[in-house]
Amino acid sequence: MNIFVVFTLCLAILTTVGAGASFTFEPRRLVNGLLLNIALACDILAIGTLVIASDNHTLVGIGLAGFIIVVVIIGFFVTLHLVWLIWNAVIVWRRESHSLANMLTLLIAIALIAIDLFGFVGERFLPNFIYETISSIFAVCILYVLITLWNFLTVLFAYNLRRPIHDQDYLIVLGAGLIDGHKVSRLLGARIDRAISYYRRQAGKGRPLPRIIFSGGQGKDEQVSEAAAMRDYAVNLGIPMSATLLEDKSRTTLENMLFSAKIINQQTHGAPYRAQFCTNNYHLFRAGLFAKQAGLNANGLGAHTALYFLPNATIREYAAIFLMNKKRHAIVLGLCMLPSLFIFIDGLVNAL
Q: Which parts of the sequence belong to the DUF218 domain (predicted)?
C-alpha cells in the first residue's frame, strides 16, 4: 500500500470522526454541513484510491461506472435546471397561495434567464473590462450561493435523519397559520401527526408518556389560538387532554422556543429534561437554531411535506438562515470579490 493511499485513508478517518463527533455533540450548527461535506469528499477520495490501488479490473469498472452515472445526473440537472424551476413554480402557483414566498423557484428562474441575457447583450455592447467585472461578480455570487446552499442542504438532511430514543419528557409542536381562522391545515396537521406518532410509539414501549406542548399564538385573522386548534385536533385523534399543555402567546419560531422552554422549566423546576420539537422537515434545522438560541434543550422531529412544496420551502429556509448570518456572508463575499475590483481598476486605468 503506497503512501498516498495511507494518507487518504487517514484523512478520511480523521475528517469522518471529526464531523461525526461535531454533529453528535451539537447537531444544531451550520458548520456541521461543511464538516460533513469535507468528510464525504475525503471518503470518496479514499475509496477511489483504494479501488485504483487494488488493480482489480472489476472494482475499477464499477467505480468508473458509478462516477459516470453521477456526472450524467449532475449534467442532466444543470442542463434542465430552468425547466425544473419553472415546472415547480407552475405547480406551486396552481396549488398554493400566490405569495412571494411561494414564487421563489420562479424568481430564481427569471434571475438566471436575466443573467444569461446579460451575457449575450453585455459582451456586445459594454466595454470589455466592465463586462468582465460584472461577469466575475455574478460568477462569485452564484458559486458562493451554491456552496452555502449545498452545506445547508447537507446539514438539513443529516438533521432530519436523527432518530431520538423514545424516552422523551416533552414534545413541542410548533404552530402555523390556521385555515379560515380556526381549522388546522394539512401542513400543520403533519406536525401534530408526527408528535402523535412519536407519543404512541413511546407508549408502545411501555415508557412514561411525554407531555405535548402545542405552541402558537392567535393571529389577528384567527378566531382561536393555533395552540388551541392543535390541541383539539390531537384530542380528536385520541390524545388525552391531560397529556397536553398550551403555549398560546408566541408569534414567531423563536418565541415558540422561548415560551415553551419557560413552561418546561416551570414544570420541572429547573431539573434536567428530555424534549423534542415537531415541525415540517424543511423547517427543522432553522427551528433547531432557534431552540439553541432560546436555551431549549431540544432537537427536532421532521414531519412530511408534499414533494412539490419542498423546493420553495427549502429555498426560503436557506434564505432566512443566510440573512441570520448576513454580516459574515457580506465579509466573505466582499473578500471573494476583490479580484473583480482589481479587474475593474486595471481595465479603467488601461482605458484612460
A: 169-318
**Per-residue pLDDT tens over the stretch 135-186:** 999 999 999 999 999 999 999 999 999 989 999 999 999 998 888 888 999 9
> 110 and 64: one domain?
no
- The 10s digit of each residue's pLDDT in 316-348 is 999 999 999 999 999 999 999 999 999 888 888
Q: How far is CA 236 from CA 5, 45, 211, 243, in A?
A: 60, 53, 16, 13
**Do both 19 and 124 map to the same domain?**
no
Residues ≥6 apart with Cβ < 8 Å to 95? 308, 309
Domain encompassing residue 150? 85-160+326-351
Instruction: State which amino acid sits at residue 170.
Output: Y
Strands (E) across 198-297 are located at 211-215, 244-247, 275-280
Mean pLDDT of 90-118: 86
Q: Which residues pair with 183 in a beta bridge?
A: 179
Residue found under cell 451575457 = 119
φ, ψ of residue 75 to 5 degrees: the values are -60, -40
Per the structure, the count of domains in the chain is: 3
Co-location of 69 and 106 in the same domain = no
Residue 159 amino acid letter: Y
Amino acid of residue 166:
H
- Amino acid letter, residue 331: I
- 38's enclosing H/E stretch is helix 31-54
Is residue 299 classed as helix, strand or coil in its secondary structure?
A: strand
DSSP label at residue 245: E
Q: What is the pTM of this model?
A: 0.90
Residue 239: name the closest of 204, 200, 202, 268 by CA: 200
Residue 341 neighbours by CB distance under 10 Å = 13
CATH classification of the domain holding 265? 3.40.50.620
* Of the residues 35, 63, 79, the one at which a domain ends: 79
- Burial of 32 by CB count in 10 Å (0-12 exposed, 13-18 middle, 19+ buried)? buried
